[in-house]
């Protein structure tokens, strides 16, 4: 159910079981540089919330580290149950424990209030180039 949940956030495309397993193996090799948090509804066995973070090692800030929050999504049927906050708290805590000096994320304008409730603030602007 992980990929079905991700489809509520973005285009997932056609991902075979083999592709999924290969990607998980790649991510496992990143060790302490990447985490995925998943919340499962044990009654239904469905994945109902997820998010990930990766740690970027910088030369700036005395060779500091930055956490990048990505792919945060809560199943539309479970929104309002504070699951998103739990995901953000877990990922933010991971970044803090990893010694990051900041955590950054991109979001749609309509989601900014949610992230502000989680302690994040607006800063600068996002730019993107898709291929």
Strands in their spatial order, largest beta sheet: 1-2-3-4
The level-1 CATH class = Alpha Beta
- Give the low-pLDDT segments: none
By CATH, the topology is Aminopeptidase
Q: What is the CA-CA span between the terminal residues?
A: 27 Å
From the spread of the alpha carbons, the general shape counts as: globular
SSE string, helix = H, strand = E? HHEEHEHEH
Averaging pLDDT over every residue, what do you get? 94
Percentage of residues in strands:
25-35%
Q: What is the total domain count?
A: 1
Report the C-alpha radius of gyration, rounded.
Answer: 15 Å
Q: By helix and strand content, what is the structural category? A: alpha+beta
Number of strands: 4
Write down the oligomeric state. single chain
Level-2 CATH architecture: 3-Layer(aba) Sandwich
CATH-assigned homologous superfamily: Gcn5-related N-acetyltransferase (GNAT)
Query: Helix share of residues?
Result: 25-40%
> Given the structure, what is the number of helices?
5
Largest pleated sheet: 4 strands, mixed
Keywords: Acyltransferase, Transferase
Domain N-acetyltransferase: 1-131
Protein name: Glucosamine 6-phosphate N-acetyltransferase
InterPro entries: Acyl_CoA_acyltransferase, GNAT_dom, GNPNAT1-like
Question: How does this model look, in words?
Answer:
- The chain is an alpha+beta fold and about 130 residues long.
- The protein has one domain (about 1-120): Aminopeptidase (3-Layer(aba) Sandwich).
- The mean pLDDT is about 95.
- The radius of gyration is 15 Å and the shape is globular.
- It contains five helices and four strands; from the N terminus they run ααββαβαβα.
- It has helices spanning about 1-5, 15-30, 60-65, 85-95, 110-115, and strands at about 35-40, 45-55, 65-75, 100-105.
- The protein has a four-stranded mixed sheet.
- InterPro entries: Acyl_CoA_acyltransferase (IPR016181), GNAT_dom (IPR000182), GNPNAT1-like (IPR039143).
- This is Glucosamine 6-phosphate N-acetyltransferase.
- Its EC number is 2.3.1.4.
